[in-house]
Amino acid sequence: MESLTFQYPTWYLFFCALLGLVYALILYYRDTTFKEASPRLNLGLGILRFLAVTLIAILLLSPLLKSILTETKKPVVVLAQDESESVAAEMDSVALNTYRKAFEQLRDRLSEQYEVVTYAFGEKVRPGIDFKMTDKATNIASVLTEVYDLYGNQNLGAVVLATDGIYNQGTNPLYVRSKLNAPVYAVALGDTIPKKDLILKRVFHNKIAYLGDKFTIQVDIAGINCAGHSSVLSVSKIENGKSRKLEESPVKVGSDDFFTTKELVLNADKTGVQRYRIALSQVPGEAITANNYKDIFVDVLDARQKILIVANAPHPDISALKQIIEKNKNYEVRLTYANDFKANLAETDFVIFHQVPSRENDLSAIFTEINNRKIPRLFIVGAQTSYDQFNQVQGLLTIKSDQQSMNDVQAVFAPNFNLFTIDEDLRDNLPKFPPLTAPFGEFDLSPGAQPLLFQRIGSIETTYPLLIFGEENGIKTAILSAEGLWKWRLFNYLQNQNHDLVETLISKTIQYTSLKADKRRFRVNLDKNIFNENEPITFGAELYNESYELINEPDVSLTITDDGGREFKFTFDKTADAYSLNAGIFPVGNYHFLGTTFFNGQKLEYAGQFSVQPVQLEVYETTADHALLRLLSKQFGGQVFYPNQLDALSDELTNRNLKPVVYSTTKTRSVIHLKWIFFLLTALLALEWFLRRYHGGY
Fold first, then answer.
1. To the nearest whole percent, how much of the chain has pLDDT over 70?
2. Domain-ending residue, one of 470, 498, 514
3. How high is the pLDDT of residue 164?
4. What distance in Å separates the CA atoms of residue 241 and residue 56, rounded to the nearest whole number?
5. What is the DSSP letter of 382?
6. Do 537 and 597 sit in the same domain of this protein?
7. For the chain, what is the mean pLDDT?
8. pLDDT at position 384, please?
9. Structural domain contains residue 423
10. What pLDDT shows up at residue 71?
């Protein structure tokens, strides 16, 4: 329905008509131009001019055409179906098909009166219901939150929640903050009668272990109605699709409501992601065996760095260094003397030179090989060091000394050191430690060296370096220009009954200096190397040119190989300056991948591995929780129905007589924008002009 309104008083229309009349009279009342024509011509021309001027004047009053649009919105009824595995476990194919037909009939009947929207939920909420029942987890709270977000401000009539009440993700649905303004009706699925079942409830373990270490697995075992039975807890290692039993432990169930915890200790004897299966043997009459086992994945790292100490002669510092380093299980220490060098540098990650090179042992050939292999190193300078040879094998620090005189020096922290953080406790206490023994002479630092400690001789703080760090030709180097670390270690223990401060200083020195930057020009990366079976495997890749700038011009391919040797080939998508790939979801197991690209005629490859672990949340809790559904329905003013009562649920919702909401929208538009007004004015003026011209006027 449309109505005409004015932004000025309507009695202004009188003046508009008066204006048109006066204009027409002045123009045609006493005009003798058409005296030879019919007397009615002036009258007709006057009427045309009157209408045109009056209409133009009315348009100057900005008239508005107002229309009211009404829309009737049916009440919204949300049907949400739990599609998790626990629901399917209680239905065979016949029962599921019968339930599906009844649910669809409910939807169709409600659609005659209401606007019905359907959602499936489990791991996540999604529109539509397909009754596949394959979700690996259940989050009931998420569907309530989703309905609130989408329909909280609409005419929401009711929510129907078909579920067994078992949730293993998200919060308790009773405590969802999003309070719906509509009743919640629950369709209670599943069986509330506890069945005879032995359950491997939870397995606690570290995701990472180190090669050669032992790691503990804690297993929680529950039993329902299994009193008097015995089982065996076993741990097997799965490699290349074959299972090898590692350990067994008997389990005796003493009650119908049984719970116990077992601890197992395993050896990390092989690097990479290792797959273990923890299993309980079946007891007679057990209803469900899918929850009798659980696969876990442990990433065994060979992160131990091999540290070589090359000493000129026995010294208390060497024992102190070994004890400090060996406390870190990630380090493996070997000792060799310069006069009888026995070490494989190819297997060495870090070298500590204690008073080497010396006057007796220059080790020039060893230094050449170490430089070629770009092995980071720490020099500890002392009275036995040959300063001339020391100045030749590194360029961070030049020491000019007569090789005979020594100074007792204490430590002073450099104010602007920023390569790694220093604990305040260490910063406060290290300057109070007993003095070390440093060469007497001149110390010249190169511009690339950064000092951590300076020497304090007596009460005088000097700029002579005590501990410095730097990098030459891509090789990180640290230099301690004094001997006597053993004194610091003993003093630390006398003061605090531990060696923490000295161990922190040495550990951070080794950690920073031994850390190697990844200089490979082609890399394929994963956010993690252990995925759940219900999450996609996503890769990223980076390619650098000779100037170490990111590029993505050539294509990058990826081949994933499973334990059975099957290959899955992919091509990366190009992003702004890198690559990305979503390889999708993979079955449970271990996989290796190989990324390949060609750049400037060179083949670049990057290999790695990942594992996919099973998600077994749905098999550990199989008894339906209808009490939760009753509380939830009561909280929102609804009721609980069962699968054979869907007709009664339909009647309940139909008889509620939920009212539709009528939405009114007012739309206004200016009359001057109507095209027919333009054509009407044009027609009036054109007709007047035509008649005047036809009868000889202008």
1. 98
2. 514
3. 93
4. 90
5. -
6. yes
7. 89
8. 92
9. yes
10. 78
pLDDT score for 303:
66
Closest among 305, 397, 399, 401 to 352, alpha carbons compared: 305
Q: Residue 287, CB half-sphere, CA atoms under 13 Å: how many? A: 17
Do residue 359 and residue 383 come from a single domain?
Answer: yes
How many C-beta neighbours within 10 Å does residue 588 have?
16
* Separation CA 409–CA 413 (nearest Å): 13
Position 695 scores a pLDDT of 74
Cα–Cα nearest to 465, from 396, 387, 390: 396
Please tell me the distance from the alpha carbon of residue 422 to that of residue 548, in angstroms, as a whole number.
Answer: 32
Return the H-helix or E-strand segment holding 12: helix 12-28
- Tokens, residue 250: 């008997």
CB 157 within 8 A of CB 76: yes
Give the per-residue pLDDT at 518: 66
Find the domain containing 219 and state its range: 197-301
| 382 and 359 both lie in a single domain | yes
The stretches in the chain having pLDDT less than 70 are: 1, 32, 35-36, 303, 517-518, 696-698
What does the DSSP assignment read for 306-371?
EEEEEESS--HHHHHHHHHHHTSTTEEEEEEETTB----GGG-SEEEEES-SBSS---HHHHHHHH
Same domain, 504 and 372: yes
Q: What is the pLDDT of residue 413?
A: 94
Distance CA 276, CA 301 (A): 16
Number of structural domains in the chain:
5
Sequence-separated (6 or more) residues with CB below 8 Å from residue 76: 114, 115, 116, 117, 151, 154, 155, 156, 157
| Angstrom distance (rounded) from CA 38 to CA 31 | 13
Rounded Cα gap, residues 635 and 126, in angstroms: 25
DSSP element (H, E) containing 557: strand 556-562
Same domain membership, residue 450 and residue 335: yes
What residues contact 629, with CB distance under 8 A and at least 6 apart? 161, 163, 165, 186, 188, 640
Q: What is the pLDDT of residue 697?
A: 66
Number of other CB atoms surrounding residue 109 within 10 Å? 18
Cβ distance 129 to 187 under 8 Å?
A: no
CB-based contacts of 263, cutoff 8 Å, min separation 6: 216, 217, 218, 219
pLDDT digits (tens, 9 = 90+) for 556-589: 999 999 988 899 999 999 998 899 999 999 998 8
* Cβ 142 vs Cβ 178: under 8 Å: no
Angle of helix 39-60 versus helix 12-28 axis, rounded to 10: 150
CA pair distance 478, 509, nearest whole angstrom: 8
Integer Cα distance of 184 and 78 in angstroms: 9
DSSP per-residue codes, 65-110: EEEEEEEEEPPEEEEEEE-BHHHHTT--HHHHHHHHHHHHHHHHHH
Same domain membership, residue 15 and residue 64 = yes
CB 5 within 8 A of CB 68: no
Distance separating alpha carbons of residues 665 and 70, to the nearest angstrom: 6
CATH code of the domain in which 592 resides:
2.60.40.1930
Residue 45, domain member (yes or no): yes
> In residues, how long is the chain?
698
Q: Is the peptide bond before 431 cis (omega within 30 degrees of 0)?
A: no
